[in-house]
Amino acid sequence: MAARAERRSFWTWGYVSDEPSEAARKDAARNLAERLGHGIEPPTVPAIDAIALRPARLDVPAAFADWVSASAEERITHTHGGHSLELLKGLNGRFDSPPDAVAHPRTEDELEATLAWCDRDGHVAIPYGGGTSVVWGVTVPEDAASAVTIDLDNLNTVLEVDEVSRAARVQGGMLGPDLEAALKPLGLTLRHFPQSFPWSTVGGWVATRSGGHYATNHTHIDDFVESTRMLTPQGWVESRRLPGSGAGPSPDRLVLGSEGILGVVTECWLRLQKRPTFRATAGVLFDSWHRGTEAVRAIAQAKLMPANLRILDPGEAAFSAGLDGNHALLIIGFESSEIPQGDNARAAVAIARDSGGLIEDDEILIDDGTGRPTGRGGAVGAWRNAFIGVNAGLTAGLGLLSDTFETAVTWDKWPDFDAEVRARVGASLREAIGEDARLSCRFTHVYPDGPAPYYSFSGVVPRGAEEERWQAVKAAASAAVVAAGGTVTHHHAVGRMHRDGYDEQRPQLFAEMLRAAKRRVDPRGILNPGVLIDV
Asked: Which residues are within 8 A (CB) of 50 and not within 5 positions of it... i.e. 6 or more apart?
């Protein structure tokens, strides 16, 4: 499949066609101005050919000219990932640490040649995926003498489908929508939908252990991987394709979550499923956030395995689903290609009602294969539209500080965990932003032994102060979740952003084991230095 010809945006998620219009940005500025009581104008988006860029610090070999470029456009569009501060830098024309060249290998042979060149000449190599990292996982270290970003957008094909076993061999550069489009004629689907789905790649999902929209059961890309193929500076690592194996530690488990420090993921076999035809959805209200989360625990531990089991606290439900600010909203969704889901939905609702949940019987929407819409109307539909329709560039540069942090914790620590995080982060928000700062929570994923809380915060700060204020809040958030017994990241990966928390969370002897593995496959330390470990 030919790589997408459209240029990637340098100041918002996705491509040029995903950029909000100037009129939409002005509308957003007017809405914020009404809230603040003074006028605001959105910053002007710089022309890409007017952006100042330091000269490239390497020479591209003539033999690589067909797939390696040192053009300003390539370097600009591969400088930043998808975090709001990075996008703000792009909007302000700041590209302080761009790669010196960008490689788009069309074959594995060209990838081998590129990585060998980087290894021989000491160029840092940054596997880019789709560039959607929100944890500074694809940025060039400031102390790198030279760097090459490796974009696998030309390696983007479904190479083989095993319809009997329901699995597919997929190249690492394939985008989520392209993968689903290739599988649809066969009646198959992966159904792994991270929020970055339109712009992220299969290889990036594997390298960062991405989390999809399934709230239970198949949540992480880990659950779908049968085998992996990865190129390191010392050669290829390819695991045997198996449904499961007890033959020692799994090689795939070292590739999953390696975040580009060991190699470049070029292929993997992924488990598929038939496309769903039966669905059921319910939105249950709770006048108590705590009782609502107890209902979630009871449903998760009943092993009903709903595809969607997300609860929004009253603040989140008001902001994203249009509720009154006094009720939490539990969204329950089931789907199957084989079995009607009405009974499962009614069983989950019954459990929710036992914890004080409020819903009428006729509000449980069931599709028994006729195509009846479920989950598109009411509060559930409003939340869905808000979640899918988010545009990172709409309010960029207006002084609106908005971000998230996510974690996971065992049920025995909840709700004390929530109270401690809200207290510590709330205090930081009041200091950094003021009393009008907003902090809310929802569960994105749920396990029988614990939830994955996802916190959102926002507020208005002086324009130009976004990075300083964000640093203070983010430091408080990371410290709070680790101190209270959670993980520093559940599905956003570690990158460079979460290194301090990851260093505290992981066993120190395991860090030495990981360094030993990196020394074996990347002895010169060229691959994504500063991510996960220091060498």
From this structure: 93
